[in-house]
């Protein structure tokens, strides 16, 4: 298990990729030395860490520490689909991630293994969650805070939650889901816990 709370560079990441038994990686700050560096290349390195079971990526910082953003993109995320043992994935403040990321998880057979998924602040929407829910039988925790394109869209979100039978927690703060739907979803989850 490795948790990095200070900055890490691309070069240091290459060294981490050589640890064959690394199971957990939590990187809070990622520093790009040069503006022309492609953060997707960093994700390719992370994707080579095939023993990872838990991965959390939070922020990228450009030169001079002046600009902070999460630069995970759908393209870069595709490299993470090679992580066959991944059970917990947390991408915080991932404003460049769309439904394509959920589709990558499904098409590479990774959705069925996940027990925890966070895509807070992403551009995923209700339709993407509905598709994903058909392939996520083990998912226990879903954090989609501040995903502003997630809404009540008929009863689609509720159907997705009902389909994910293992779901014990869903975080919806900052979405467009009405309070009444959130309460109904929480009731479904509470009933599951009582029945268990």
Could you give the topology of this structure?
Elements: E1 2-9, H1 10-16, E2 24-31, H2 39-47, E3 54-61, E4 68-69, H3 74-80, E5 88-91, H4 99-107, E6 116-118, H5 126-133, E7 141-143, H6 156-163, E8 169-171, H7 179-195
Parallel strand pairs: 1-2, 2-3, 3-5, 5-6, 6-7, 7-8
Antiparallel strand pairs: 3-4
Helix pairs in contact: 2-3, 3-4, 4-5, 5-6
Structural account:
The mean pLDDT is about 85. Strands 1, 2, 3, 4, 5, 6, 7 and 8 form an eight-stranded mixed sheet that branches. This protein has helices at about 10-15, 40-45, 75-80, 100-105, 125-135, 155-165, 180-195, and strands spanning about 1-10, 25-30, 55-60, 70, 90, 115-120, 140-145, 170. It is of the alpha/beta class. The radius of gyration is 17 Å and the shape is globular.
**Structural class by SSE content:** alpha/beta
Order of helices and strands: EHEHEEHEHEHEHEH
Percent range for β-strand residues: 15-25%
Q: Give a short account of the largest sheet.
A: 8 strands, mixed
Q: Report the principal-axis shape.
A: globular
Low-confidence stretches: none
Number of helices: 7
Overall pLDDT confidence: 85
Q: What is the oligomer described by this structure?
A: single chain
Can you count the beta strands?
8
Computed Rg: 17 Å
CA(first)-CA(last) distance: 31 Å
Percent range of helical residues: 25-40%
């Amino acid at each position: 298990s490795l948790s990095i709370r200070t900055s890490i560079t691309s070069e240091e990441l290459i060294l981490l990729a050589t640890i064959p038994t690394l199971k957990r990686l939590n990187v809070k700050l990622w520093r790009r030395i040069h503006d022309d560096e492609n953060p997707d290349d960093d994700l390719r390195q992370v994707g080579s860490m095939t023993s990872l079971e838990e991965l959390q990526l939070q922020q990228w910082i450009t030169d001079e520490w002046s600009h902070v953003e999460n630069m995970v993109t759908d393209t870069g995320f595709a490299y993470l689909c090679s992580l066959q043992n991944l059970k917990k994935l947390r991408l915080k403040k991932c404003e460049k991630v769309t439904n394509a990321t959920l589709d990558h998880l499904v098409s590479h057979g990774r959705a069925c293994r996940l027990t925890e998924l966070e895509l807070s602040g992403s551009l995923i929407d209700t339709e993407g969650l509905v598709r994903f829910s058909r392939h996520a039988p083990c998912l226990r925790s879903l954090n989609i805070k501040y995903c502003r394109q997630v809404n009540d869209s008929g009863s689609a979100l509720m159907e997705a939650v009902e389909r994910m039978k293992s779901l014990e927690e869903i975080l919806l703060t900052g979405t467009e889901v009405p309070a009444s739907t959130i309460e109904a979803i929480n009731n479904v989850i509470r009933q599951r816990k009582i029945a268990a």
